[in-house]
Protein 1
Amino acid sequence: MTSPGYDQARVERRRREHERQAVVFGVLIAFLAVCGIFALAVYSGAISSPFNRPFTTVGVTEQESYPVPCLPAVKGQPDGALPVAYSKIEVRVLNATAVSTVVGEAGAAAAFEAELDRRGFDVIKLDDYEGEQKVYSELRFGAKGVVAAYTLAEHLPEVRLVLDDRKGSTVDLLVGEEYEAPYPLDDVAVSSDQPLQNRAGCVAIAEVTPQPFTRPAAKPAAEASE
């Protein structure tokens, strides 16, 4: 037979358990209510969300946008500038990602070098870019290389055109993190007798402020003497 004292203790224990459960459920309900009110306020625009910020690629510097220079007017070519012969376009292929490239090593930059060489471009250098790493691939060139850059750009999807203050006509291809492989050669509509087309939204070259030209890294004395 169960003693009255034991029954009373069991009743007290159950009462305390019910009180704790009531407190826990009360706190949870209050928390959910606060979350609901906050979400409604964010949705209605009464307050701004603390998570409303742009996402960036980890390890990649936020990339600026630059005005694209228009093709120059060419005397004797009223319909626009004609493409430059591939063999006359000097290209430096530069790895602009976080992964360092050794000349001759397999990788994206080396693959671009091999493909452009196969297509007849004069690839004069394969190296790492000495500036900040890039999200997207870019063609960098000076005022003398605008037509050459436009010609090369016909082979490269989604490539950015950036004018810098170099003096020569060499074009740099910066292979970025989000690079796109060249178009298949059969899909490239470049003809020596067909004028190139300006990029949409381009700006007259005289109105574009050139970016600083990032020169190649200085070669060691032993290499330079070869």
Protein 2
Amino acid sequence: MRHKDEFGLLKRVSTGDPDAFRILYEHYSPSVYSFIRKYLRSSELSDDICQNVFIKIWEQREQMSSVLDFSAWVFTIAKRQSLDFLKRAATEQSAMNIILQSYPSDNDRLDSAYQLEEYMNFIEKVLLRMPPQTQHVFNLCRQQSKSYEEAASELGVTRNAIKKHMVRSMKILKEAAENELGISFTLLLILLSSQL
């Protein structure tokens, strides 16, 4: 994209023009996704972080008219978000290891099964608060382990629509885990995986 064209788009984005934002997104998201994938080595996580990068850009759109090099700016945000995610995951994994090490070695299987059931019930309750289509997309992608492409094909929608539903569901689950359980969603996932 030529600098002059990009500068014009950034000015339009700064005024809240969704069409200009879509053009920037379509131009940059494939390379931002590839960049993030080098850090995270996971397609699904890279999709989620890539979406978060562009959500952050949209939330800060008023600043766009003063950005001189959008390419450098977007990749800086992508790198920061990727490294923040890895740092959180490492910290939470360390905390989880400490918690698991402090469990008695003869930990009662009934307690673990009960705790797992409680976490699963919590997730199910939070899912019920979501719009039906978002619930269905979450079920396909997370509970049935379908790719975004497979879910899009099954529902007759675009891959981007699936990504939007997943970003929405993860945001709702993250907020619920933090506000209602007092833990991060990543830690909740670690707790669940340690008991499956």
Protein 3
Amino acid sequence: MGTDIIIFIVAVLFGIFIYWRESNGNGAYRFINKIVNSKELQMSADNPKGFVYKQAFIPRLIFIVSIVLIAALILEFLTPISVFASYYGVSAFASFAAGSLLGTYLANIVIKSSKVIEEQSESLEDKFENVVEKGKEFIDDLKTRDTKVVEDTSEDIQTEPEPKVNEKSARDRLKDKGLM
């Protein structure tokens, strides 16, 4: 079980490497395309499509499995390692194919997300600056509101009616009634 995990991790890295290389240039795919297709059917010069780069699932799967199968056949016939003679060899073959396919999709996610981050970096900076400015305005509003509230309450206190001089106090009124 340990060797299968190691083979799977190496295969994921291999898939990432294949996808990354084809995203930088697709010379091998163009060469095969020129050999196989007629002049009218050949891909245009600005088409970035490769064996795994910008391909659908089925062509990508076929390419990965055929590359791994060719490598397994070379191992089978040129070395004393027998890949297809036991369950472990077939399991390693399947693990390598699945890991390579998974690696291509992981590389696709990483490359697309890095492109989106690069495109959005300027707008993110602008958004961050807007947030900072709005925060400063909010803090300034809080500071001015506090002083306005203090001024409003001081005006309310000053506008209260002052006691009239002509009226008697409560003590005097109680004395007049004879209760004190």
